[in-house]
Design goal:
about 475 residues; alpha/beta; Amidase signature (AS) enzymes; eleven-stranded mixed β-sheet; about 15% strand; globular; binds glutamine
Length: about 475
Amino acid sequence: MDVRSLTIDQVQTGLRNKTFSAMELTTSALAFAQAENPKTNAYLLFCPERALAAAAKVDELISNGEMLPPLAGVPIGVKDVIVTKGVRTTCGSKILEKYIPPYNATAVDRLEAAGGVILGKANCDEFAMGSSNENSAFGPVRNPVALDRVPGGSSGGSAAVVAQGTAVVSLGSDTGGSIRQPASFCGVVGVTPTYGRVSRYGLVAFASSLDHIGPFSRNVADAATLLKVIAGRDSMDATSAFAPVPDYNATLAQSVKGMRLGLPKEYFAGLASETASKINKGIEVLESLGCTVEEVSLPHTEYAIATYYIICTAEVSSNLARFDGVRYTARSEKSDTLSDMYRNSRGENFGAEAKRRIMLGTYVLSQGYYDAYYLKAQRVRNLITQDFAKAFEKVDALITPVSPFPAFKIGEKVNDPVQMYLSDIYTITGSLAGIPCMSVPCGNTVEGLPVGMQLLTKHFGEETMFRLAYAFETAGGFAG
Ligand code: GLN
């Protein structure tokens, strides 16, 4: 069987018709993933025992004639910032190189309870900070579509395993674009749900008020299935929402005729020309489906990057304080005093980007600067959120590019953090507002590099977003 292009539906049909058993599928998926991984470095670790045990359970259900749960036998990759009980979770950092979590993230529990088979842990930027996966302490990930290019970040490994066919779906995390941007660079679907839709319990905290867990897949229906499984209230995360979880797949195929789409004018300046032409073509496809299109304005967009890098670094400086050489982590052997031990353990084991953000965050929270930076940034964040609320009074969804340019070459931006930060210019606003957003493939450039189109809707508007994405995919928009 060819595991490279399987969808959740095909896995279920194959199991039901006994074309293959879950054991057979898992064994070949693991063998294929292990053989292919050296090309991309997308998996940091495989967990064959856990995968085979999960597969055996699915086969038992089948032999007992029981109903198959929604992810039965589906090979899955999990970003290495999401904890897995008994399986090393590094967050792409040397400081957690040997960390074995004693518990599972809620999302992991839920996908395993739904029959999902976790093959391994996906590479990422250190603590999810980055846009290219080059900040991983365990080496960069290569984009399966063009091996000399980055897969995007920070969930580069999660996007790459789905694009490479070494998992059917995967979990990533998004704080400012880390699901959507790599999805767009690798030509797959990536979804950042509403903040609070999916429990963050067991997602190692980067910037807690912005962190989300979300799915990657090769088609819209699979993303909807995976989101339904992991979404919903969890008493272990006080910010998780009580709102009931709709059956997204049930409404996927509903017509989008008459849907009102907004094009925020601030998002269409400064695009690489091929990106612009692909997105414009995508918009034409949506119009041909009966959607109406109008220009809207999100006037505070220009402040988004500055706002994000104040809020996220402030939260980083606090969240990363726990990695102190005592708990979880690598301890420096070189220290005589306690404060030396803290300093050396952190100094030796955090990478440059983590250090940069801890310092920036400590600065913006310090006495005398707190009001000028942190408090002001929180106010601007509110204005950005209101921009979206006003736009959604007029339109059902917004359509934008995901990134100003397609996947860049490995090494091209590593020495210029500001350039790197600018790659997230169109994704950060949605994260600050906490609204659902996704990237759908929208064709390739002449060089064959994928372009992603971003769809955004109001809080808990995932059903509308998925419907639109599904209609676009079905109309051939993915081929662009
Ligand atoms: N690239 C952005 C950053 O470095 C977003 C990262 C993310 O969403 N985790 O902060």
